[in-house]
């Protein structure tokens, strides 16, 4: 993605294979110390099977209606992300 962004903005780069290198990533993470690299966690079978297109669409439709009802599209600071472990 970084490579494609650099190409789109005509930013000079050293990439020969169409990817940003390890040095670029190391420098990027040093400049953006609040970010971290994490390994993906596995998903339980039940959760994976429950993630159907219909359920995801239903969730986002509900989310959109709540954001509209409470006029939150222009107030991102009033939206919080949490799950059962974050309560």
Description:
The chain is mainly alpha-helical and 87 residues long. Among the domains are: 31 residues, no CATH class; 26 residues, no CATH class. 46% of the residues lie in helices and 0% in strands. The protein is built from 4 helices and no strands. The longest helix has 17 residues. The two termini are 34 Å apart.
Instruction: Write the H/E string, N to C.
Output: HHHH
Q: List unreliable stretches of 5+ residues.
A: none
Strand content: under 5%
From the alpha carbons, calculate the radius of gyration and give it in angstroms: 19 Å
What does the average pLDDT come to? 87
- Give the termini distance in whole angstroms: 34 Å
Structure classification: mainly alpha
The proportion of residues forming helix, as a percent range, comes to 40-55%
Question: Biggest β-sheet, characterized?
Answer: none
Task: Give the tally of β-strands.
Answer: 0
Organism: Photinus pyralis (Common eastern firefly)
Protein name: HTH CENPB-type domain-containing protein
Fold topology:
Layout (H helix, E strand, L loop, with lengths): L1 H7 L13 H10 L13 H6 L2 H17 L18
Protein name: HTH CENPB-type domain-containing protein
